[in-house]
Amino acid sequence: MRPILKSNKLDDVCYEIRGPAMEKARQMEEDGHKIIKLNIGNLAVFGFDPPDEIVHDMIRNMQGAAGYTDSKGMFAPRKAVMHYTQEKNISGVKIDDIYLGNGASELIVMAMNGLLNNGDEVLVPAPDYPLWTAAVSLSGGNPVHYVCDEQSGWLPDVEDMRRKITSNTKAIVVINPNNPTGALYPREVLLDIIELARQHQLIVLADEIYDKTLYDGEEHVSMASLADDVLFITLNGLSKNYRSCGYRAGWMVVSGEKRHAKDYIEGLNMLASMRLCANAPGQFAIQTALGGYQSINDLVGPGGRLLKQRDLAHKLLTDIPGVTCVKPKAALYMFPRLDPAMYPIADDQQFACELLAEEKVLIVQGTGFNWIAPDHFRLVFLPNSDDLTDACGRIARFLDGYRRRHGRG
C-alpha cells in the first residue's frame, strides 16, 4: 500500500523537550527502571501544588463549566487579566484586547498562524523555548535566530538582531524571563529591542510566562509597558507562577499600536472563533489566581524551596570540572555549558541518551533549544534537595567517565 506521510509543513518542526530521549526514558520505565526526569518544568509531579483557592474555585464552578464560553473567554477572567495589565503598567488594554487560551502555547501558535505568509521571517532567540521556532515554521514562516550572549548573562545581542532584520521580517520574539537560561532582561535592553521594532515596523511578541518566578529581589518589566507606538502581543498564564500546568489556562494581550493592525486582529478573532473557546474550568481559575495570595513569592523568596533548589543545583553543577553556568535570575531551569576541551561532544542528543542509559537521568540537549553548538544542556531544578543532589551526583559521575573515555580525565 502507498505509505501515509506526514505533512511537509512538519519537516522543520521539532520539540526535543518531549523528543527521542523522552521516548527512550518511557521504554526504560516500562522495563522497570526508575528515571529522574529533569527535562520538563511540570511542577505538580515534584510536589508543587496549585494554591488551594484555585482548586476550590474550579470545583465550585464546575457545574457551570459545561457550555461553550465566548470565543475569547469569559468576561470575569478577562477583566482580571485587564487589571493585571494595569498592575504591569501596560496602558490602553480593553476587555476585547484579551484572548484566553488552552495555555499560552495554543495562543503562541494562534498568533503565528494569524500573522505569517509563506516566507515571512520572525526573529527568535537562540536559545529559545522551541515551541516558538516550531510555531513559526508550522505557520509557513522562517525562524531567524538571534544570539543571546552567555558572556553578558544571556542577554539578547541587539546588534545581531539588527543585522538579521530583512524586508521579510515581521516580528521579534522576546522570552523574558528566559527559558531555558533563566535570564531576566533589564529595561535598557528591552528599550533597545523596542527601538528596533519601531524603526522597522515590527510586532513584538513578549512571552512573559515566568514573570513572577524571580529570585534575589529581582523585578520584571513588561515590554508592553515601555511604549505605545509599537504593536505588542503579550503572553502569560497560570502554568508556572501558579503551578497549574494541567489546567491549560493562558492569555494573550494585544496592546500598543493597534490602529494599523485591524486586519491582523480580525484574523486573531477568526482563529479564536474557529477553536470555539478555551476550556471553561481553566478559565474559572484565572480570576482567583490573579486576585488571590501570591504564594509564588514564598517559594522564590528567602528560605523558599525554589530559591534553595536553584542555589543547590547551581553549586552542584559548577563544582563539576569543566562545567560553568550563568546563575538564573528567574524561571525553573539551568542551562550549563560543558567545556568542549574537556567534553568533545559531537552530537548532544546522543550525549543525552548516553546519560539516560548509564545514569537514569533525563535532561534535554542544548541544540533542542536551537542553541548553535552541542555544548549545553537544560535541566529543571524542581526535584527536592535529596533527589536533586542524587541527580547532579549521577551527572557528575557520568561526566567523569566521559572525560576518561575521551582521554580528557
From TrEMBL:
Molecular function per GO: L-alanine:2-oxoglutarate aminotransferase activity; pyridoxal phosphate binding
Annotated Pfam families: Aminotran_1_2
Cofactor(s) recorded in Swiss-Prot or TrEMBL: pyridoxal 5'-phosphate
Keyword Repeat: no
Lineage: superkingdom: Bacteria
Occurrences of domain Aminotransferase class I/classII large (ranges): 34-395
Presence of keyword Transport: no
EC numbers for this chain: 2.6.1.2
Alphabetically ordered keywords of this record: Aminotransferase, Pyridoxal phosphate, Transferase
Entry similarity comment: Belongs to the class-I pyridoxal-phosphate-dependent aminotransferase family.
Record PANTHER family: GLUTAMATE-PYRUVATE AMINOTRANSFERASE ALAA
Descriptive protein name: alanine transaminase
Organism: Massilia cavernae
